Amino acid sequence: MSELQHLAGKHILLGLSGGIACYKSAELVRLLSKAGATVQVVMTEAAEQFITPVTMQALSNRPVVSSQWDAREPNNMAHINLSREADLMLVAPASADFIAKLAQGRADDLLSLMALARPIERCPLAVAPAMNREMWAHPATQRNLEQIRADGAFLLGPGNGDQACGEVGDGRMLEAAELLDEVIALFQPKRLAGLKLLISAGPTFEPIDPVRGITNHSSGKMGFAIARAAREAGAEVTLVAGPVHLPTPRGVKRIDVQTAQQMFDAVLPLAASHRVFVATAAVADWRPAAAADHKIKKDGSGQAPSIAMTENPDILAAVAALPQGPYCVGFAAESQDLVTHGRAKLIRKGVPLIVGNIGPATFGRDDNALLLIDAEGEREIPHNDKLTLARELVRGIAERLLHTQRP
Ligand code: C5P
Questions:
Q1: Most buried by CB count within 10 Å: which residue of 220, 272, 294, 352?
Q2: 320 CB under 6 A from ligand 1?
């Protein structure tokens, strides 16, 4: 599945209530559709003050519905007909007033009627609040949110920052791209619910002097994809990242480091409090024994300087050796003989699972194939984009955890 089609086959009821954030919902329809979903837009009267149904119809390629008296439905029951096909009802923006209605189960317009009439087992409700920070913080709003959460609604956001009214604080609707990621996540099975995952990712950078260093071509994409997939699966994820140019997946806690030693110092104290450690980082094996304080200059002799090297600590092996350590997953990027090298690494590092891939060819690419190697044997996860591979790996890890007692 390509990144573009993560919502293939999904039908989403997108409800807009009144708020300036309605302009973001136009982009959201575009992104949901691009991700493969079909989108039925439902608007309240207030929403139509902010954006026209014409815009939303053009983007969703379906007539917008807004009235429970819409005679286009043969049985005049839009609230039933439209909510029976949906895989998700997403209200974005959800105004304070609309959330109050949801909390009370009121149904005096089509959108609130649909929220009440949808089959709650089959069609979950997600709500993206959008309001002024005072309205957000008001005890009545907080009470209502508590109530709709208890009734099973998923709360997406809100974000924090500049508000249309000129104030700054909590209550901004998430951006369309953030909502897309949240919607994709909602559809993923929660195989790691409540578990804490620690992931190392990217290359390390070992300084030679203030302007030079030793690094490698690891892009961090696989580790970041695993962080996203694990969070989608319900885990609480901490990502320790070497120098990479990648956005942090939503909901993931990120710690940036440069050197192998810094990565070691960040990972080790956290490891015992995590259930799983996935070491995807391409950690430099050696570092210059002492980085020069000043830029090393040519001295005119024609002689290159010799740089004394020292070995870096093995982060994965150190975590695997902890008495109360997490379930450890190592990576093996090889250029040949994946099974032999992977199996040797399984033993050398003392870990229960090694994920092999043909390394150099995959650095920086968006796709790959993986080979899971453990005591039981080998299983291939065939060629695919890295997020799809990461989800399969998360499934593999979750299955193995079921059979693994915490030491
Ligand atoms: O020893 P090698 O680099 O071949 O092993 C690769 C695996 O070990 C990867 O999972 C990598 O993240 C981890 N590793 C580590 N610390 C090192 C070297 C490798 O955590 N210093």
A1: 220
A2: no
